[in-house]
Amino acid sequence: MHIVCSDLEGVFVPEIWINVAEKTGIEELRLTTRDIADYNELMQKRLSILDQHNIRLGDITRVIDQMEPLPGALDFLNWLRERSQVIIVSDTYVQFAGPLMRQLGWPTLFCHTLLVAPDGAITDYRLRQEDGKRKSVEAMQGLNFHVIAMGDSYNDISMLKAADEGILFRPPENVVSEFPQFPVAREYEDLKPLIEQVMAGEAG
Fold first, then answer.
1. Is CATH 3.40.50.300 correct for 2-13+69-113+128-203?
2. For residue 188, which of 76, 83, 180, 196 is within the disulfide window of CB 3.0 to 4.6 Å?
């Protein structure tokens, strides 16, 4: 049996932090895992910026409330769920995800948790586990699933490497050039035949 483990931001929804940067005018918040490979380094930088500019959790969730999935994302996800179980494995946070998960029909989500002070200040974060994307894939393989993984950024690479099949979706060119072993899809219609080919091969 097969199962799909997929990133969230950049695959099904826009990058949350980029949207926050656009709404607040704080350009430094545009940095994502496409730019900085070390996730902990990136998050420490983000927390420092939020503190410096007095940005609270409510400021961020108000931005997220106005966001929508990427065009075509829900149709693709529905297509995918007719063919496979799907787990969204993301470096986002429980406190961020609700509005976007609702619009995607509440898929299963593995993500992290923020630590928030009574005044709404985001003081820290707690990873569900270190390298959780890779470990999620390995756990599914331990249950005898054939795993297809999809992602777009540096923090997805260990997941793609661990999977039986890894696919880059709309990655930046720096990621493509560094990891040429993975097939690249730019549109959902390009993803479908890649996934169908894997599933047909497994069935054969």
1. no
2. 76
CA–CA separation, 80 vs 152, rounded Å? 18
Q: Which of 9, 91, 152, 156 is catalytic?
A: 9
Domain boundary assignment for the chain: 2-13+69-113+128-203, 17-65
How far apart CA 107 and CA 119 sit, in angstroms, is 31
The per-residue pLDDT for range 52-63, each reduced to its tens digit, is: 999 999 999 999
pTM of the model: 0.88
Q: Hey, how many other C-beta atoms are within 10 angstroms of the C-beta on 40?
A: 11
Known active-site residue 27: no
Q: What is the CA radius of gyration of the chain?
A: 17
Is residue 184 pLDDT above 50, yes or no? yes
Fold of 17-65: thrh gene product, domain 2 (3.90.1470)
Closest CA to 163 of 186, 196, 140, 195: 140
